[in-house]
Design a protein that fits this description.
There is one protein chain. It is built from 3 helices and 20 strands. It has 440 residues and is mainly beta. A hairpin with a 5-residue loop joins strand 18 and strand 19.
């Protein structure tokens, strides 16, 4: 922000240049009410300009814009969509700031707003290229969505307490250790394909959505009204815990460091829920969720590997809902090379594999008939899913930007447990995408 004296100097300089260019023209008239008029104009300008906070509390605006072009093929139909990269990762802006209460003690805030284009990956599928809105009575995933809004008090030696609408300690815990530069275009959560259906090989009809078939991987992945504590970092270790949403509580442990030429980071979390689920990325009621992720990189060569495991258990004797958010587990591994081959920035090449085992039963809409096997009754079918993929990410340091080109292939083992026990024939699903993310 330009202060009044700076702006006055700029105006005066402009008047001087104007006077010189006029040659023999008369000098500027500095009498009368010129100064009062200038003060009024400066005040008008300041009233219509965003400030970097007030004199006590700072304001910083940051965020990113991320969009991609996605080609998909479900074995019967294929198409190309232009879309974002999914909730919690989508384009957003964030306002943060803090003030010093006394040496070593601070108070601050964070407001984060997601901005969706015409799409919503949670509900985008073969029949809905833009995706209908989800849960209009609670959260509308189209347009603009408040992702976080909270205040905090922080001590250099005692840690930070946050209160408000925010990520809980176990939100994305196992994902975040991934330091390869490929976390956004390739992670183990169903951001890209959550709303798509798989096809019956015999009839071509669409059946259970992939999210349903694969179950829950980031089972506490939505921001909630909560109280959260984050400790200081001791020798690379830190702990976090949170409670909220009537009732979900969790605890997380994180570590990051470098040893003998290797970068190492890991995180693990445990959470319990007794509240009703908030689909699509929220832990169901009466469940316990465990997750762990780790990343190792050899600094000199750029070779790296990342792995994660998640498991959710249901206390009840039958699944609570048809979303498949109970009694399932998944493991994921990704490995590759991160090297700086040219001045643009690092290039990341990787391959990935994931296996979902969903013990919870699900049902689908009528019409997905396979003869004796239908999966039409509640909790009739279960599914195991295997995914493999490859990709390349190019970082552009001068623009704080990443570009990616990726491919994934999914194979499904769907079993009917009630109608006529046996395997349900389904088509593979595959997609490729080219996209970019630019930070500001």
């Amino acid at each position: 922000m330009m202060n009044r004296f700076g702006l006055s100097a700029l105006v005066a300089a402009g008047m001087l240049v104007s006077g010189l260019s006029a040659g023999s023209a008369s000098a500027a008239d500095l009498g009368g009410n010129c100064c009062a008029d200038l003060e009024e104009r400066i005040a008008e300008l300041e009233a219509t300009t965003a400030r970097k906070g007030n004199r006590k509390v700072s304001l910083t605006i940051s965020g990113w814009v991320a969009e991609q072009v996605m080609w998909w093929d479900d074995g019967i139909e294929d198409n190309v969509y232009v879309q974002g990269i999914g909730t919690t990762l989508s384009s957003h802006f964030k306002m943060t700031g803090q003030a010093t209460i006394m040496p070593g003690w601070y108070a601050g805030y964070l407001i984060q707003v997601e901005v969706y284009g015409s799409e919503n990956l949670v509900t985008t599928n073969q029949d809905n290229p833009t995706g209908p809105s989800l849960y209009d009575n609670s959260r509308n995933f189209n347009g603009i969505n408040t992702l976080q809004s909270f205040w905090f008090i922080k001590s250099d030696h005692m840690g930070k307490v946050s209160v408000g609408f925010q990520s809980m300690a176990s939100d994305n815990t196992a994902i975040l250790p991934d330091g390869s530069g490929s976390l956004v275009p390739a992670n183990f959560v169903q951001f890209d394909y959550a709303g798509f259906f798989i096809r019956n090989s015999n009839t071509g009809a669409v059946g259970p959505i992939i999210l349903t078939a694969t179950g829950c991987t980031d089972c506490n992945g939505l921001t909630l009204n909560a109280v959260r504590y984050d400790s200081p970092t001791w020798s690379g270790f830190s702990v976090s815990s949170s409670w909220g949403a009537d009732d979900i509580w969790d605890v997380a442990l994180r570590y990051a460091g470098e040893h003998h030429g290797f970068k190492v980071s890991m995180a693990t979390a445990y959470s319990e829920s007794s509240s009703a689920p908030v689909a699509p990325f929220q832990q169901a009621a009466n469940t316990q969720f465990f997750q762990i992720g780790a990343y190792v990189e050899h600094v000199h060569s750029g070779l790296w590997v990342y792995g994660a495991y998640t498991d959710i258990d249901n206390d009840d004797s039958v699944p609570i809902d048809s979303l498949g958010f109970v009694d399932n587990h998944a493991w994921y591994v990704k490995a590759g090379l991160r090297r700086r081959w040219h001045p643009l920035g690092h290039t990341v090449i990787y391959g990935e594999y994931e296996d979902f085992e969903n013990d919870a039963r699900f049902s689908v809409a009528s019409g997905w008939d396979t003869g004796p096997t239908t999966c039409n009754d509640p909790f009739e079918c279960s599914a195991d899913v295997q995914m493999w993929g490859v990709g390349i990410v190019q970082e552009i340091d001068a623009a704080a930007m990443s570009l990616w080109l990726t491919y994934r292939d999914f194979e499904f083992d769907v079993t009917d447990h009630i109608g006529s026990t046996g395997s349900v024939p389904v088509e593979d699903f595959q997609y490729a995408k080219f996209g970019a993310l630019i930070n500001f």
